[in-house]
Amino acid sequence: MSEGSIPFRKSLDERTAASQGSAQPVGTIVPMRMGTAGVGLLVHDHREATRILSDVDTYGSAGELMASVFDEPTETDADAMSDMVFAVTQTDGEEHRRVRRALRRVIDTRVRDVSDQLIQDVQHTIEDALALGRIDAVASIGVPIADSVMSRLLGLDENLVSALRTAVYQGYPVRELDATLVDWVHDRRADPADDLVSDLMAELPSLEDRQVAANTRLLALSGVEVLAALITNGILCLAQDPRTQSLVRDDETLLPGLIHEVQRYASPIARGIYRMTKEPSVIGGYAVPAGTLLVIGVDVCNRDTSVLSDAHRFDPTRGRDFDHLTFGHGRHSCLGIPVTRLIAAQALRTFLSGTTSFGLTVEASELRFHDTAVMNGLVELPIWVERAS
Question: Predicted confidence band at 83 (pLDDT cuts at 50, 70, 90)?
Fold first, then answer.
């Protein structure tokens, strides 16, 4: 159990309330304007969020229903909507099952094929970083590990990785990113390589280039880049918690619980899960019409004290009974969970075994996170380390 409070980033809503001088708690169901999609609901209630994610018949994928909530779309918007192709998490029914099954098969096969190489990449990256004594754990650990996974699993080159990272943190338009990926997929189809994207096209040749590109983007953004943030968020928590550092070094069986607690308490996802009401519903006492966009406030749900009384305390020894929503829930849960757990566990295991102690070189309040509502990703994480002999 950690000693005292382990500071982590406040939720977007808590930050907004603080900037406005409000002492009001974050509401559990918050109506809000969501761009051209009109008024939707932000869900901060863990029980309601879990119910929504479990009921795919009432609460469908946002992709299929997005066109129904656009406010007076222009002719250009309408043309763009009719031409859109969605990734597997944005579809329902047989299309979702067909593509998800294919992705599950190729991901499992590819991870088995390259897991030893990925683990070696993690070990070499951390060994090189620890040799420096003082490091930025984002630039020296999180980013190189993410790049390794994107390269070995998906076959992405440096230019595509850069474009994907820009899309996450700087608002690079998804439409432009997909156009770049479609060109790359077209070349891959003509000249297959030893990577997961080529495997997917061989497994499901009926997928159009645009569909392959959309799912490539999904795997890179919601899987691999999240992994980099998860690893660095874990290092941030441990850097403030010497007692847990020692506990896990002495007893490696605590590592799965540590990973689970980092996912919950320091979720790399802030608001990354979107659903749509397929029919009229009641959510948190609100009568909600069909076609309403729902956004799950993941980091707030993960710290819902009505479900977990001490949810605002970082405790890696609490076990894994609490079902956090960082990687979704139910049929649309993240496809990359196995590889994420594998790499995150290896990274923190290697980091802890390679050090006797480590800590922040700045106050936690001075740390900067990327300015995005979707991710909780650090800009940099300056730390000092004492290497194990």
Answer: low
